[in-house]
Structure of Carrier domain-containing protein:
Amino acid sequence: MSDLPSSPEQLRDQIAAVLDEPADAIGLDDDLMDAGLDSIRLMTLIERWRAGGVQVGFVELAERPTVAGWWALLAAGSPAR
């Protein structure tokens, strides 16, 4: 089973899990760094997504630290399902 999110909501669920926060506490346009996401947690998510075949980098995610921004990057880099 792939750990790639299939929707922005699933992406938000994954982020909330690493932050140990309820998903509904994270808005699609909230700054994830302000919400407590640090580089180690970000790398955990990146490795999970890379294992699913998405080539996305730390810098590009750090430059767009929102669920909406990440969803755009992941959707563009996702393998066909």
